[in-house]
Design goal:
Structural class: alpha/beta
Largest sheet: 5 strands, mixed
Shape: globular
Order of helices and strands: EEEHEHEHEEEHHHHHHEHEH
Helix content: 40-55%
GO molecular function: kinase activity
Low-confidence stretches: none
CATH architecture of the largest domain: 2-Layer Sandwich
Keywords: Kinase, Transferase
Strand order of the largest sheet: 3-2-1-4-5
Number of strands: 10
Organism: Mariniplasma anaerobium
InterPro entries: ATPase_BadF, ATPase_NBD, Euk-type_GlcNAc_Kinase
Strand content: 15-25%
CATH superfamily of the largest domain: ATPase, nucleotide binding domain
Number of helices: 11
Mean pLDDT: 93
Protein name: N-acetylmuramic acid/N-acetylglucosamine kinase
CATH class of the largest domain: Alpha Beta
Number of domains: 2
Amino acid sequence: MNLYLGIDGGGTKTKVTIIDKREQLIYENTSGPSSTDSVSLDETITAINEAIKPYFDKNPKRKIDGCFAGLSGIVFPTDSLDVERGLRDLPYFKEDALIIVKNDMENSLYSGACFEEGIALISGTGMVAFGKDIHKSHKAGGWGYKEGELGSGFHLGTEAIRYAIRAYDGRYEKDAFANEIAKSIGLNQPSDIVYVMNDFYDDRTRVASLAPIVTMFANQDNQHAKKIIDLATDECALAVKAVYNYISMKNKTCVIVGSLGNSRGYFKEQLQLKIKAIDPYINIINPILDPSFAAAMMAKKNDQNL
């Protein structure tokens, strides 16, 4: 039996999927984080091993023919090579198994069944646009929270904190939006601002957790919340346009991935309008495949192309 392994690894969890040559689901499982910018290389391999091991404990004679691993945090070729070497040390692969390790933004593209060409916009905690055609690929955004992660949940959260601080020191009038953000971050009076910023400064996930408050108030027509979303959707569209201008697609498809990018209401409406303004013929879709299943399909495709 030919087996193909797909891995989708992020900062909170790792999901693995094994399929056969008919693309039938054989096994799937989840484990802890494997993002290479969140945990060590040993922890990355351990998380993947923990997810795969139960299957091979029950089927010790079977081996994997091909693997595609999409992991958050992969930036340089050396990152990919380090993880590939770690995977080859596991006892589950055939000696000639093709193992490919890329950034998880590729899984996101494949989750839209865009294996040959297309664009993926990931807008969740972070933001990145990635696309490819048959000859080349390109990435815009996704350079880390210290760059700003413009167009992301982190971006919304950062701007919301800034707005609440201005409201509480008198630069804006307090409203329900400012009060809700202040309550969430423990801002009771202007003198709390220093402590709040020190507490939140390096906590990317915590800042991004404020994004649903922004989208909720924007959907209630709060002008300050809508202004924040206008800025973020501008940045998402700008990233999509950068990728669109670099690649050449026959079938113009953009798959939008992530909780923010697919949030109902003002954010999604503005985002789709701005993407359509780039080219009205772009087909905007939601993911149709689980990212780890899509990665397994890509592993099979790569193996058959050898």
